[in-house]
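Long-time lurker, first post. I've been practising inverse folding by hand and with some scripts of my own, and I keep getting stuck on stretches where the structure tokens seem ambiguous. Below is the full token string for one chain I'm working on. Before anyone asks, I'm not after the true native sequence, just a reasonable design that respects the backbone. If someone could post their per-position residues I'd love to compare against what I wrote down in my notebook.
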């Protein structure tokens, strides 16, 4: 594996999830693999889970980490090619990516969608530029359109909680929020679910359609109640409008998930990537119920990161 940006970088998803589950059982089995290696973690946005789970994964493999909160601690980056840098930007991304590559064997980058320029976000302008100029493998810690480590952790969590002999129905439901939120987690979950043989349904109000590039053949159901019928797993997430890019469209019905709405599910397990706005996106009663997998998902972030780091180091050792 030379990069980790999306599910397209995974040759066999089932095998990857099984390997991650084995890693979870013996996390220190390859504690010497990363000896002498350095992982750079570059954040243009805040993080709790991604930052700490990836550091922990690296530690389990004997990899040292360097973390840079690029917006707060580094020079302000310029992203335009050929620009005359006579305003407030101090360092071009081409220099930053190249210099960081001098200190690291692998780099992780978090660069959220700005939600102001659809073309820049959809084209992954920042991630692509960084990858173009970095000279070591790049892994995504969430980009403008996708969050692959979250989706891999979600696949691990679902696999661990499957009922025997039953193809699960997985429902991704939109939830309300007070701010404009990027599409990365929802896009990514859809993309990874589309690689499984699970029944996958997305439910959201009209106007909140995700980019069809990621949802592909998923069933879209505008009636949340219908969508939740017989669900085995319910994944809750807010996202802003893609069509009316980055905007919040007002919705008449109450889309917040409650225990009452879960009555018609098949005793569904509850998932959310966190952080969550409690009692806005999801009620406390749902997040704290016995079927909630939210902390298992967070725990599995470590093993998602660890299996990818392991594969990247092993394949680059060979080359
Ligand atoms: N779920 C997730 O990526 O959490 P952080 O934003 O805290 O890293």
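-- Answer (accepted) --
I ran through it position by position. Result:
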């Amino acid at each position: 594996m030379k990069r980790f940006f999306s599910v397209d970088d995974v040759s066999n998803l089932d095998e990857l999830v099984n390997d991650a589950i084995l890693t979870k059982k013996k996390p220190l089995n390859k504690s010497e693999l990363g000896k002498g290696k350095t992982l750079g973690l570059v954040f243009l946005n805040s993080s709790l889970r991604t930052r700490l789970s990836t550091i922990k994964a690296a530690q389990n493999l004997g990899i040292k980490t360097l973390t840079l909160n690029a917006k707060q601690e580094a020079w302000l980056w310029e992203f335009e090619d050929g620009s005359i840098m006579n305003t407030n930007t101090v360092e071009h991304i081409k220099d930053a990516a190249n210099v960081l590559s001098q200190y690291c064997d692998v780099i992780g980058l978090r660069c959220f969608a700005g939600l102001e320029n659809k073309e820049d976000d959809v084209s992954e302008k920042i991630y692509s530029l960084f990858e173009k100029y970095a000279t070591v493998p790049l892994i995504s810690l969430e980009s403008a359109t996708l969050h692959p480590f979250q989706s891999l952790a979600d696949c691990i969590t679902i696999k661990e909680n499957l009922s025997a002999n039953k193809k699960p129905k997985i429902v991704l439901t939109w939830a309300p929020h007070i701010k404009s939120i990027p599409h990365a987690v929802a896009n990514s979950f859809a993309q990874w679910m589309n690689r499984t043989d699970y029944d996958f349904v997305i439910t959201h109000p009209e106007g909140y359609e995700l980019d069809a590039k990621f949802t592909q053949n998923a069933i879209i159901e505008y009636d949340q109640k219908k969508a939740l019928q017989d669900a085995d797993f319910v994944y809750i997430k807010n996202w802003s409008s893609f069509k009316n890019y980055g905007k919040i469209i007002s919705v008449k019905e109450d889309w917040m998930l409650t225990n009452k709405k879960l009555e018609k599910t098949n005793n569904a397990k509850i998932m959310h990537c966190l952080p969550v706005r409690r009692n806005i996106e999801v009620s406390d009663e749902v997040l704290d119920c016995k079927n909630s997998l939210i902390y298992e998902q967070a725990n599995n972030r470590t093993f998602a990161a660890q299996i990818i780091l392991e594969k990247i180091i092993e394949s680059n050792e060979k080359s």
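A couple of notes from the structure itself: The chain has a mean pLDDT of 97. The two ends are 11 Å apart (CA to CA). Happy to go over any region you disagree with.
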